[in-house]
Design goal:
By secondary structure, the chain is of the alpha/beta class. Helices cover 48% and strands 14% of the residues. The protein has ten helices and six strands; from the N terminus they run βααβααβαβαβαβααα. α9 (179-192) packs across α10.
């Protein structure tokens, strides 16, 4: 039997879970520049929206400690249910697990704050229950460089697969002949991919002589 981890991620075979991207959790992140982290997470969210990847949003102790989910994420998924939890471990939450069962996909793409807690705990337990876990390393953050890196090593040794947010976006698109998502994919690149996005803008305006634009059209869930 082939190894399921050798399969590429597609819009039809995975679910995205965004865990605890909230102000109080952001304050504690120390392994990555926090503005870069926000850029990466929002780019990841937009990628899921462009390709209609089922997305589970969950937050911990919103009003008593952590604050509301970043508004940039809410803007990408307007009206989307946010699963509220008390446990640090998403896998303790029955409602989240029932939602994943309802969606019915075995490949889980997860990003969370903090890496060593809110990402590692559900990643390990999800794998124990037969899910395949792909964690988005640059859309997650830990309380120190060591905390993040040791958590990453622990998950990899347990069988989870590390990816980046841009890898997720381009793995969803994969073929530039897929014109139905071409413009939206390049819009995400333009807004969130740094030098790659600058190159796209240059090619559009200088090579293809298209009008200059300050930003791409806003991407929201369909």
């Amino acid at each position: 039997m082939s190894n399921p981890k050798h399969e590429l991620l597609t819009p039809a075979n995975c679910t995205l879970i965004l865990i605890d991207h909230q102000p109080q959790m952001t304050f504690g992140v120390a392994n990555i520049d926090r503005q870069l982290l926000k850029n990466n997470v929002v780019g990841l969210a937009k990628a899921a929206s462009v390709f209609n990847v089922p997305t589970v949003l969950t937050a911990v102790e919103t009003e008593s400690f952590s604050g509301y989910l970043w508004p940039e994420i809410v803007d990408v998924f307007p009206g989307h249910k946010v699963f509220e939890r008390s446990s640090m471990n998403t896998w303790d939450d029955v409602a989240v697990k029932e939602e994943l069962k309802r969606i019915g996909r075995k490949k889980l793409v997860i990003a969370a704050l903090w890496t060593e807690v809110c990402l590692t705990f559900p990643a390990l337990e999800a794998m124990a229950e037969g899910y395949e876990v792909y964690f988005v390393e640059d859309a997650s953050g830990g309380t120190s460089v060591a905390a993040h890196e040791m958590a990453v090593q622990r998950m990899i040794q347990a069988g989870a697969v590390p990816i980046t947010w841009q890898q997720f976006l381009l793995e969803m698109q994969r073929d530039w002949s897929r014109k139905e998502t071409y413009d939206a994919t390049l819009g995400v690149v333009h807004d969130h991919s740094g030098a790659y996005g600058v190159g796209v803008e240059y090619a559009k305006t200088m090579v293809h002589k298209m009008p200059q634009s300050a930003m791409s059209p806003h991407v929201v869930a369909k």
